[in-house]
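Researcher: I'm preparing a figure for a lab meeting and need a structural model of a single chain. I don't have an experimental structure, so a prediction will have to do for now. The sequence is pasted below. Please return the structure as tokens so I can convert it later.
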Amino acid sequence: MARIAGIHRPAAARTAEAEATVRRMLDRYEGRIDLVSSPHGALGGIARPGQTAGGDICQTSASIVVLDGRILNASELRATLPPARAGDAALIAALVERHGMPTALEHLSGDFALAILDRAAGRLWLARDRFGVRPLYWTPVAGGVAFASQPRSLLMLPEVATEPEPSFVARFAASHYRTFDNDPEASPYRAIRQLPAGCTLAIGPHGPGAPVRYWQLEDRGDLEQPAAELAEAYRAHLLRAVRQRLGGAARPVFTLSGGLDSSSVLCGAVEVTSARQQAVSCVYTDSVYDERDQIQDVVATKVAQWHAVEIGNDIDVAAIVARQVRLHDEPVATATWLSHLLLAERMAGQGFSMLFGGLGGDELNAGEYEYFPMHFADLRAAGEEATLAHEIACWAQHHDHPVHRKDAAAGAAMMARLTDPAVPGRCLPDRARMLRYAHVLRPGFFDLAAYEPVMDSPFPSYLKNRAFQDMFRETLPCCLRAQDRHGAALGIETVNPFLDHELVEFMFRVGGKLKIRDGVTKQLLRLATVGILPEVTRTRVKKTGWNAPAHVWFSKRALGELCDRVRSAAFRDRGVYDPGAVMALIDDHVRIVEGGLPEDNHMMFLWQLLNLECWLDAIGEIAGKGAQCPPA
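Model: Understood. Here is the structure written out token by token.
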């Protein structure tokens, strides 16, 4: 896994210290630094383990290219171009010479962040892959911009302030994790911008322009072929995506949960290689989210060796979170990623080079419970009331819950709360969920009630718009960021075959009835994996999901340490929270968990509280500037 960084000052001549500054920016990571000077600055990168120096950098007479990531269709592209030097960066340079920017990006398939300097024009282009698998941040500096794979390399620059973005602090403190990435150009730091997925940014003599999209999902209507035919097409897309990503993998290992997505990726790899694969799972002492039993059907038939990472109830969650925010340069959205860190550390320590996962599968296949009311709203908009009544009845039969009830009244209430019947396809934010903890903010810090998230509506379908929202503004960005940070820190590449743009474009042309039917999600995937997945796995209806037992992690020692923080003068003086309101929530969490009560506990709030506090404590260290700036 590479990291890249650079400084480009087109309004000023290159200074003697530009190369030394970029070297210091890259010194924040492990690996071999490769630097190139330019007429207006310097660009550089860290070579991935096993690569020769310069594998991700290319200089030609026309351009300089620095790359984090890899191009998956490199062999196909090389066949259409004149002979070029080895390496993906050299391939990109040749594409740019033929097609120019940003057109050259349209030909690339892969996971990447890159910078391209056009020597003749003195223009720097920054670009990210279609789904934002690889990160890229930038900030204005005197005469130009600086860019880097992580905020730490920008925060260390003397002219870049370390002040957190107050809106981000408030949302992380007291809202739901789905709000954290609503603005794809924002970062947790007021001075630092993020380049959105599927975008490019040009920095010329007059400074940076606005990000420009080189790819986006568009409404092209639903495919009309029979379900069996579409399932065959889906199967071909998925197996191609897995095969393509396995190419060049020295020692891959596959994350495995009890769900369909990770199982489909692993079993797809078995299908294309005719060989069992290595697999790894987090298993828990606490039984609520433990899936070891559901995993065994795949383990018995598809796995060469299963690595079980056992995580107990008494882990030192505060110490792990303090370490984790320093790897991420920011707080971590959900407790699942603590488990992923421990899993990735174990696999990297055993010499695995590539970690496959199922991210993107829920969004493409309507796998989250969130998608049911959107499908219901689509049926109502189409006037299919009989089908709607049947689907709600099946939903209640399969998914009723003692806390979150499923029945006709609940379905109607969710549609009313989350969809706009007057505008076909327009989804609404879940304001009750967004504002559940707004009262814990110190009065005057930030008005969460006035916060309005952007809700995209590029499709006439509620279900498709909900999936689009999740992919680009809600669920997927924080997951990809966590995967990236762990991979970069540990030297293990993370790979998600569902995030193949041809596969994604295909699935956004599949109608809702082929995703949810008879109260069961992922219908087309189930049909596409006949003969690939074990039948018990393929037909499983109940979804545990890859979650973590944070409700028990926040007990005894961890909860005592958190209470000490909340009672401290430093916590009070920081001015983010109302300490009394926080203590009341901690008491309520204890009441619910220790009493085994059928109520929602507060584990997600406590996770966010601990992460935010650890991050605010660590900003100075992350930036290399000593004490952090207050978040006011």
